[in-house]
Design a protein that fits this description.
It is a single chain. The protein is of the alpha/beta class. 46% of the residues lie in helices and 15% in strands. The strands form 7 sheets. The chain has an 8-stranded mixed beta sheet with strand order 15-14-25-24-23-22-21-16, covered by helices on one side. Strand 19 and strand 20 form a beta hairpin. The relative contact order is 0.07. About 4% of the residues have low confidence.
Length: 637
């Protein structure tokens, strides 16, 4: 090699080295356990921006032991070192950060002139709500949580202090060329997971738009109109005529106060439109941009002549169309199945009146059971109408393509045939979330969930993370969860949950075509459980848990989380074994098989008594050392 070639090659390698070095330069917030940055808040920072600073200080101190000081923007000019500007600062505006252009609670990270900017929209809905309310656009908070995840490896796996993973480090830094904009796919994800504060927000479970999701709103509209009992005495025709009698709803005790719920109303009575208009107007006046609307759950039609004249659906309730709400098909709707116009026509009138008074506000109607069949009389609703769809097949998106739509989903919930055993697991829920994102769904309302953390926890986490970023790989998210929660037993627990997911699919495949048409949750447990969990599968699942326990026997953290999974698996095993033995007994009703079945029934009773004893022991321990005892581990506190 001649000298010229040698020098050229050396210079080329030097350039590569310098490029890689430049790419790896970092902007330090903490170095060797000492704070080298200051957090800067806007002069008139709102409470949500302040909340973002609280979380950034709290978690960086947990990671490094260093406490980052906080100043107002007017006091930041003379500071040396890195400045971390949070929210809508003047400096962010000068750096070209446009918060108005962000979607929902999206955020921007940007390093400019040696300073870090973390900024998003920070708005409480309606104004004046408590800062800890789930109903808020926390753009800057979301930016802080993502920063802690990406550069501090913090994770919020399960909503307890012991379900939060905060690795220790001497330094906290970000790339000095950081420039990223991140926006969520959905404006809201609410339901059974909304009550957990940090865990909920860190995982994108929040109401980042100024709306009030409503499902069955007739009760609220009625109570706003007057006391149901007084209204019934004054004019019982407000209420539905059922089996020849006007009826009040169910009388139930709520916090030691009796009230009537599930009220069925007469849709042809002028008071129906009036009370709903008044109730929704009240919510609009309180500051909401949109509110939900839906009939009472378990709806029963009013049998009065005026209501029946609206759509003639009598035959449906006499059994002719027993499963019309699920069997409905677009091609057959004009031929065989009448639309429930008594629900659609009054709703259209409510929407029109509200549009005249509040042209910039919207109402979101629940499309559920009876209203799954679209109106034939109302071909076009006013511009203020949105829909919350309870079925998500392409035909429903096609029907309501001209309207913004949210969805109501049934991925979990004890009303499913699985009861308190696992239902929708990780890969299926990830596919569902991506499908909804692809159809530009506005938001997701999750019915129930949160019942079986030990067996469904990975699915809950995957749902949240894929909703935040539909492009993430499911296996990557699951690996993150298994390693974070089960430590060295992660590979074995992955095998456990993979098998569990396959068995749920095997059980669901036994749902007949007729059951599938009726409902996503229809089925027969005596068919599902033997198909999903034959004896050899239960043995294999139990063996995997035993292997996992042995691997982490000296690891208190992982052992406790495997213990929760094991506790809930024991119940699954009892139920599945019971149905397996029930099938054997039906095929061969011998005294021996009867005795085995009776023993499993007694075993279930003993298990429930054990849970009660565990609950009482936990309460005693709480009384001894304080409530934090249970809250350290249990997601059910």
């Amino acid at each position: 090699m001649n000298l010229r070639n040698y020098l050229n090659r050396t210079f080329f390698l030097f350039l590569i080295f310098m490029a890689s070095t430049l790419n790896s330069l970092s902007l330090d917030l903490v170095k060797n356990g000492k704070a080298v940055a200051t957090i800067v808040l806007p002069e008139d920072a709102n409470p949500l921006t302040g909340q973002a600073s609280k979380y950034l200080v709290e978690y960086i101190e947990k990671i490094t032991g260093a406490n980052l000081p906080i100043v107002r923007e007017s006091d930041s000019k003379a500071l040396s070192g890195t400045r971390v500007f949070l929210g809508a600062t003047k400096a962010a505006q000068k750096a070209g950060i446009d918060l108005c252009a962000l979607k929902y609670d999206g955020f921007i990270w940007k390093v400019s002139d040696g300073n870090l900017f973390i900024a998003g929209k920070d708005v409480l809905f309606p104004p004046g709500m408590d800062v800890n309310s789930n109903r808020a656009c926390r753009g800057t908070v979301m930016g802080v949580f993502r920063l802690l995840e990406d550069y501090g490896n913090v994770r919020w796996f399960i909503p307890t202090p012991r379900g939060e993973v905060v690795p220790k480090a001497d330094d906290f830094s970000v790339p000095d060329n950081l420039d990223k904009r991140q926006e969520p796919s959905f404006g809201y994800i609410v339901g059974g997971f909304s009550k957990y504060g940090n865990w909920s927000w860190a995982n994108g479970i929040r109401m980042a738009v100024n709306g009030k999701v409503g499902d069955a709103t007739w009760d609220a509209a009625l109570r706003n109109y007057g006391d149901p009992e007084d209204l019934f005495k004054k004019d019982s025709t407000i209420f539905a005529l059922i089996d020849g009698k006007r009826r009040l709803g169910r009388k139930v005790a709520v916090k030691q106060v009796y009230k009537y719920t599930h009220n069925m109303l007469c849709n042809s009575n002028p008071a129906f439109v009036e009370m709903n208009e008044q109730y929704i107007s009240k919510l609009f006046d309180e500051g909401y941009d949109w509110v939900g609307y839906g009939k009472s759950d378990g709806w029963q039609r009013c049998e009065c002549e005026k209501c029946d004249a609206m759509d003639k659906i009598d035959d449906i309730w006499n059994g002719k169309y027993r499963y019309w709400i699920w069997d409905w098909d677009m091609e057959s709707v004009d031929k065989t199945v009448p639309a429930p116009e008594r629900l659609w026509v009054p709703f259209n009138e409510i929407a029109k009146r509200l549009y005249e008074k509040y042209p910039d506000k919207k109402i979101m109607a629940l499309v559920y059971t009876n209203t799954l069949i679209p109106s034939l009389k109302v071909r076009k609703f006013p511009p203020n109408v949105m829909f919350q769809l309870c079925k998500h097949e392409p035909k429903y998106f096609e029907i309501y393509s001209g309207y913004k739509h949210g969805v109501f989903v049934y991925w979990w919930g004890t009303f499913n045939i699985q009861g308190i055993t696992p239902k929708t697991l990780a890969r299926k829920v990830a596919d569902e979330v991506r499908y909804l994102a692809d159809h530009n769904v506005y938001g997701i309302n999750i019915c129930c969930g949160n019942e079986v953390w030990g067996l469904e926890g990975p699915a809950y986490y995957v749902m949240a993370k894929i909703a935040q970023d539909p492009n993430r790989k499911v296996d990557e998210v699951l690996d993150e969860y298994y390693r974070g929660i089960f430590h060295a037993a992660a590979p074995v627990m992955k095998e456990f949950f993979d098998l569990l997911e396959k068995r749920i699919e095997a059980g669901n495949s036994m749902q007949t075509e007729e059951e599938s048409r009726k409902s996503v949750i229809a089925g027969r447990p005596e068919v599902y459980f033997p198909a999903a969990y034959p004896e050899e599968v239960l043995f294999k699942l139990e063996n995997l848990l035993e292997r996992a326990r042995k691997i982490v026997k000296n690891d208190d953290f992982a052992s406790n989380w495997i213990g929760l999974t094991d506790l809930q698996f024991r119940y699954l095993k009892i139920i599945a074994t019971g149905f397996n033995l029930y099938r054997k007994y039906n095929d061969n009703p011998t005294p021996e098989n009867h005795l085995r079945l009776a023993k499993i029934v007694e075993g279930r009773k003993a298990f429930l008594e054990e849970l009660e004893e565990l609950k009482e022991n936990t309460r005693s321990e709480e009384r001894r050392v304080g409530k934090e005892c249970r809250s350290r581990w249990s997601p059910y506190h």
